[in-house]
Amino acid sequence: MDLKLREDDLAFQREVREFLDRHWPEDVREARRNTGRFEETKGESPEVRRFFDALNERGWAVPNWPSEWGGTDWTPTQKYIWDKETARAECPQLSAFGARMLAPVLYTWGTDEQKERFLPAIREQKMIWCQGYSEPGAGSDLAALGTRAVRDGDDFVVNGTKIWTTGAHVADWMFCLVRTSTEGKRQEGISFLLIDMTTPGITVNPIHLLGGIHSVNEVELKDVRVPVANLVGEENRGWTYAKGLLTHERTGIAGVARSEVALERLKAIAARTAVDGGSLWDDADFRRRVIELEIDLEALAMTELRVLSQVEQGGAPGPESSILKIRGTEISQALQVMQIEVFGYYGMPYPDQTLIDNEGPVGEAYAHAAMQAMLYGRAATIFGGSNEIQKNIISKAVLGL
Ligand SMILES: Cc1cc2nc3c(=O)[nH]c(=O)nc-3n(C[C@H](O)[C@H](O)[C@H](O)COP(=O)(O)OP(=O)(O)OC[C@H]3O[C@@H](n4cnc5c(N)ncnc54)[C@H](O)[C@@H]3O)c2cc1C
Q1: Residue 213, Cβ neighbours under 10 Å: how many?
Q2: Highest averaged pLDDT of the listed ranges 34-43, 223-232, 377-386, 391-400
Q3: Has residue 105 been placed in a domain?
């Protein structure tokens, strides 16, 4: 892929910038920049709602989807520009569970009725999804999952417990892996079900994370009746769909464009942080560490481009997405730690603490969400399949060991 932008790409970049400046202007960016809260809703503020509506009106909400469901026919370079520009403008993103993870499963394996019912609502961020994969006894070893779905007339009756379910407390629906057979290989008895979270028998119990954030939950399912029409693809073939979804999830978790923005911000803040009569950016050791990270990030950006052009040719990211996941999360964690280092004690307070103290936060606004982001960021090497598991995948599927 030619990395130097051609004139038509530069024109596209200008068009994107104009759109984002109009619909996600600088004052809105600034107001939201320093709030580190978990938000996975249909558009919790009028600005966010307006932004999602503008995206849909323009036909830019889901560039990676097939065009018949609202995708664009952009080239890989244009998609790359779009990702960069939306990260640069710190735009809100459609909920990844619906738009990035479930949607490819639906438009590849779903029935026409499922596509009609769910894809437009996901594209418009009018339906929020959560992912019911992990269970207390099935995380890395996902095929050990034991939530049972037993056929009863036109329904499945589902019993079991899911855990670490991000956003289950705000989700309208859950895509869920369930065991429909105990015959043969474990992977061959799993099905992919879509469950309405308002169905009787579902209890969502919150789990509070280290940084004070409530984003994950335990979900208990007791005699939950799910219409057979909500089965995606074939019964007992869910493992195939689940694996396809995970490669999309891992590619998204890498967050290269977001890290690039964070790195530039870190440099700018270091340049205005006074240390020993100069700035922190004058400190050779600090600068060296930032530049090392920058080099790693550039190498990762190249790998991401390779995966993207592969997606363009073959339709889905391959096991190489595991490389993106490992390096992307390691780099973003290193950046989060460096931010805390730069912000010093201003990086300490996070919103819940300051609310309890009933006082405004101390110090620079940009530092307020840093600690919360750093603590939540520890989970990035665990979710989407832990980094150790990704190394196993690389050794088997990429290196053939
Ligand atoms: C913040 C957060 C959000 C999450 N959101 C969701 C969600 O929305 N939906 C969902 O379904 N799940 C979610 N998860 C769950 C996540 O996918 C699992 O935590 C993850 O797959 C690891 O499983 P586990 O926690 O059971 O750990 P385990 O599988 O018990 O692993 C424990 C440790 O052992 C290591 N290990 C295990 N097996 C091997 C092996 N074969 N080789 C080498 N090392 C190994 C692991 O790397 C890990 O370090 C979330 C997790 C977190 C922390």
Answers
A1: 19
A2: 223-232
A3: no
Q: Is 217 in the pocket of ligand 1 (CB under 6 A)?
A: no
CB 143 near ligand 1, within 6 Å: no
213 has a pLDDT exceeding 70: yes
Domain check: are 157 and 36 in the same one? no
CATH number at residue 146: 2.40.110.10
Residues 261 and 392 in one domain: yes
142 CA distance to ligand 1 middle (Å): 9
Asked whether residue 120 is domain-assigned, the answer is: no
Q: What is the DSSP string of 337-388?
A: HHHHHHHGGGGS--HHHHHHHTSPPPS-GGGTTHHHHHHHHGGGGTTTS-HH
**Using a 6 Å cutoff on CB, does residue 140 contact ligand 1?**
yes
CA angle 334, 335, 338 (to 5 degrees): 90
Q: Could you say which of 249, 260, 304, 320 is catalytic?
A: 249
The pLDDT score that the predictor gives to residue 38 is 47
CA distance 344 to 197: 42
385 and 289 fall within a common domain: yes
pLDDT tens digits, residue range 331-381?
999 999 999 888 877 776 555 554 555 556 566 777 777 888 888 899 999
Instruction: Answer yes or no: is pLDDT of 303 > 70.
Output: yes
Per the listing, tokens 């639906």 go with 106
Structural domain boundaries enclosing 360: 254-398
* Rounded CA separation 67/69 (Å): 5
Contacts of 265 (CB under 8 A, 6+ apart): 366
Distance 58 CA to ligand 1 centre (A): 38
Strand 129-132 versus strand 173-179 pairing type: parallel
Residues 375, 308, single domain; the answer is yes
Residue 105, helix vs strand vs coil: helix
Return the amino acid letter for 348: M
Residue of minimum CA distance from atom 23 in ligand 1? 139
Q: What percent of the chain is helix, strand and coil (3-state, nearest 5)?
A: 55, 15, 30
Q: How far apart are CA 244 and CA 382, in angstroms?
A: 19
Choose the residue to mutate in 38, 128, 134 for probing ligand 1, maximizing ligand atoms within 8 Å of C-beta: 134
- In this prediction, residue 314 carries a pLDDT of 63
Q: 44-48, 270-274, 376-380: lowest mean pLDDT where?
A: 44-48
